[in-house]
């Protein structure tokens, strides 16, 4: 009788593990597809070399993705002990991501490089810096709640989703190029909604982490667009770029 009652719980846990593994793989595929031409498969498309900073940026962010897949796979394989040991490495990589990501965004703004044609580079700077800000909050909360698996795994997944806009913006689809931020932010938000729907299907409710973290990600997108055009932001962005030699 106990085995019969335990089966639904076992099935739910198994489904949950594979959901996170599947999401981590989907994230990796999205990033690879988005940055294939400009980074991963760059030699096949152009002979123009990348500056060292962009190589460092790509290496660190790729390391996070590899570790993210590894960590979700370890949990699915019941290797929680190794998962926890690698958590220290994850913390180091996360700090490096924020430092290098912020530095790269400011330097590219200084060089006048805007990924979105027609958008002022100082206004655009709010997008990558916003990514780093939201990522920092969610990852920090994820490490703080590392002993609460239900919260930890959602925070880490949503933190990773929060930085996908850059990859999605580079996917070779005409509608993304045509609609710009509306498209790449919209698709990022769709992934957040997918996590919420997963909660509704499996828990019959929305987990509070999915609700709060999801709201932070989604709300940050229009707020960034509004902030980017203000005099206060442009003054701040100008001040930031002046620190870059």
Q: Mind explaining what this structure looks like?
A:
Helix content is 81%, strand content 0%. It has 245 residues and is mostly helical. The model has no long low-confidence stretch (mean pLDDT 91).
Alpha-carbon distance between the termini?
71 Å
How many helix segments? 11
Order of helices and strands: HHHHHHHHHHH
Our count of domains comes out at: 1
Q: Output mean pLDDT.
A: 91
Structural category: mainly alpha
Main beta sheet strand tally, sense and closure:
none
Approximate strand percentage: under 5%
General shape: globular
- Radius of gyration, CA atoms, in whole angstroms: 19 Å
Which bin fits the share of residues in helices? over 70%
Number of strands: 0
- Low-pLDDT parts are none
Q: Summarize this, please?
A:
With 245 residues, the chain is mostly helical. It is built from 11 helices and no strands.
Keywords:
81% helix, mainly alpha, 245 residues, 0% strand
SSE topology:
Layout: H1 2-40, H2 52-76, H3 80-110, H4 121-124, H5 126-144, H6 149-161, H7 165-169, H8 174-179, H9 181-203, H10 208-228, H11 231-242
Helix pairs in contact: 1-2, 1-6, 2-3, 3-5, 3-11, 5-6, 5-10, 6-10, 9-10
